[in-house]
Design a protein that fits this description.
Structural class: alpha/beta
Distance between the termini: 26 Å
Strand order of the largest sheet: 1-2-3-4-5-6-7-8
Helix content: 40-55%
Radius of gyration: 18 Å
Shape: globular
Order of helices and strands: HHHHEHEHEHEHEHEHEHEHH
Number of helices: 13
Strand content: 5-15%
Length: 308
């Protein structure tokens, strides 16, 4: 299995340097990363809105080692929100944030991350949009869920992400599927041990369906993060069985992957949101995209050979 190897490489400075220097890297990175600056990503938001799509924006970067870097990450999101406000795009774009960017792993990281993410959530609410807290590795989740609960006291529309491959997630889904909640379900893209997570793809898919049923039958707003045609069809069927209208849940897919499917679902009347990452610190995000799907790795390999 190449996935775990690639995920391990995502933590390696030596591999970071090698991948960054590879001749074909930029071509592949450009497929998954919308740009490096706010100015570069704004036309993509506008184009998506013109096609009936919505976006969630992720300023990439996870290797935060100082409180000053965490504050800079906060300020990058505040800059983004300011631009969305100026352009009148607030209702077409939400934000996705990783609390590791806001200092979660530093000393006093829980309080620091909460202090840094709160003004982002408040600014998003002021322009008519919201923030979703991305899930990271299992050791961070208790802190993430506690911060999510705290933020929802004043901003109940704040969303969070759950990962189907973790054993704990069915219980988390039952707790989160309450009125007003916004929950994105994904398969999971971090290397997790067998003591906490399913390792077999078929078992992960089964867990995904069980959890999705909990969310669809609950009172919250499910966000289906998947490119898998079978899981998309199952989600549509579960939505029908639960009596949900098409605007009572949404699909989310990554920028640069299955773009035709984005348009197809939107044309059918579904809410379709494109997870759009941008920024200069792209390495960790990029490596997880390679790990998720063998075709992505093959595309990268061909690019290196072609450009070498």
């Amino acid at each position: 299995m190449l996935g775990p190897v690639i995920l391990a490489a995502s933590r390696s400075d030596k591999m970071r340097r090698f991948i960054s220097a590879a001749p074909g890297t930029k071509q592949v990175v450009d497929r998954f990363i919308a740009g490096e600056t706010v100015d570069q990503v704004v036309p993509i938001i506008e184009d998506a809105a013109g096609k009936g799509l919505e976006v969630t924006l992720d300023v990439v970067g996870e290797d935060i080692t100082t409180p000053e870097q965490a504050a800079a990450a906060r300020d990058a999101y505040l800059e983004l929100i300011g631009r969305l406000k100026d352009l009148g795009l607030g209702t077409k774009a939400e934000m996705s944030v990783k609390l590791s960017m806001f200092g979660q792993s530093l000393d006093g990281g829980h309080e620091l991350a909460l202090a840094n993410v709160r003004p982002v959530v408040e600014a998003a609410a002021e322009i008519g949009t919201t923030v979703t807290l991305d899930a990271e590795d299992h050791t961070t989740l208790d802190s993430m869920f506690a911060i999510h609960e705290e933020l929802r006291k004043d901003h109940p529309q704040t969303g969070c992400v759950i990962q189907a491959y973790l054993f704990r997630t069915e219980e988390d889904a039952r707790r989160l599927a309450d009125a007003g909640s916004r929950v994105r379900i994904v398969k999971g893209a971090y290397k997790e041990p067998a003591s906490v997570a399913y390792q077999d793809k078929a078992e992960i898919d089964k867990a995904y369906v069980r959890i999705l049923r909990i969310l669809m039958e609950g009172e919250g707003y499910p966000m289906i993060g998947s490119h898998d045609p079978r899981l998309i069809a199952i989600a549509q069927e579960l939505g029908r069985k639960a009596g949900r209208k098409l605007d009572e849940y949404e699909f989310q897919m990554l920028y640069g992957i299955r773009s035709d499917e984005h348009l197809r679902l939107a044309a059918e009347g579904h809410r379709m949101r494109v997870y759009t990452a941008y920024g200069t610190d792209w390495y960790g995000y990029f490596m997880r995209r390679l790990a998720e799907k063998p075709a992505n790795l093959l595309f990268f390999g061909r690019s290196i050979l072609t450009k070498g």
